[in-house]
């Protein structure tokens, strides 16, 4: 028993030193970036608990202690251009309640991960109200979907910019509002945007709502 306790203490100490060593290998810029993501998460959790517009159900707010996230992974942040299609191909984004959203296939973002090239299709959602601007939509699924992460998929925010320089940061991947509240309908990511690996970054599953 004494030997087992001694071994456990050594193992815990080794693991702690490994974490410190790993942290020390990060550049100051990477450490600052991690802190910024953690701060953003804290602020979001506070708003989800207290803001009137929060999608968290009122009866759940009392016990709400924050969303569940993966640790920040600096290797899952990618920068680059969106490659536009020669023509805007009309398409339709389907919502979780069967609603249809007119869209066009805008282009794709290509990135390298674990020695393979992957593409994510970017859609431009058109608005029925001419006063509202169209917006870019990037939803995706991966090997964690419906297990560790929300079953419909997760989103990443993008805004059109003239420089055509975009950041695809999976640490900022988030659940749509229908993950928290059944009164919302959410855009379903295209089958083309299933990534054949586990994206263990960003938001995890909250809980199931039918």
* Total number of strands: 7
- The span between the termini is 49 Å
Question: How are strands sequenced across the largest beta sheet?
Answer: 2-3-4-5-6
How does the helix and strand content classify structurally? alpha+beta
Instruction: Give the tally of structural domains.
Output: 1
Beta-strand percent range: 25-35%
Task: Give the overall average pLDDT.
Answer: 88
Instruction: Encode the helix/strand succession as letters.
Output: HHHEEEEEEE
- Largest sheet data: 5 strands, antiparallel
The low-confidence parts are: 1-22
What is the overall shape? globular
Estimate percent helicity.
10-25%
CA gyration radius, whole angstroms? 20 Å
How many helix segments? 3
What does this structure look like?
It is globular, with a radius of gyration of 20 Å. It has one domain (6-193). The protein has helices at residues 2-25, 28-50, 58-61; strands at residues 77-80, 82-94, 100-113, 116-125, 135-140, 154-156, 166-169. Helices cover 24% and strands 26% of the residues.
Layout: helices, strands, pairs:
Blueprint: H1 2-25, H2 28-50, H3 58-61, E1 77-80, E2 82-94, E3 100-113, E4 116-125, E5 135-140, E6 154-156, E7 166-169
